[in-house]
Amino acid sequence: MRLNDLLGWRVIDGAGTTIGGVADVRLVQDGPVLASMQSALRVDGLIVVEHHTTRLFGYERHVGPALLRWLVHRRLGEVWYLPWNEVDDLTDGTVTTGTHRADLKRHEEMARY
């Protein structure tokens, strides 16, 4: 599977409630050193949006004019971060997690790398 294939997948919790859709994949470069002398990338988590799965340009966070951020949040709804270690299953366009929506961390509260 390619990471791009995850975009748009529906995310549901253990109770079967739809949380939203995958809008982005967060990678961290902290793996073993490769022949190119750079550390390998690993999947750190998924960015999940409540309403419309669309490309994110950073406006869902702390950047850009306030009006533009408001419009983006109005369209997307809530934006959450789902850590990769909390993903239980990937099947048929659906990501399943045991974590409930109320327990997910809001994406804008995440530390910026």
UniProtKB/TrEMBL annotation:
Q: Which superkingdom heads the taxonomic lineage of this protein's source?
A: Bacteria
Spell out the protein name for this chain: PRC-barrel domain containing protein
Give the species this sequence originates from. Answer: Kribbella capetownensis
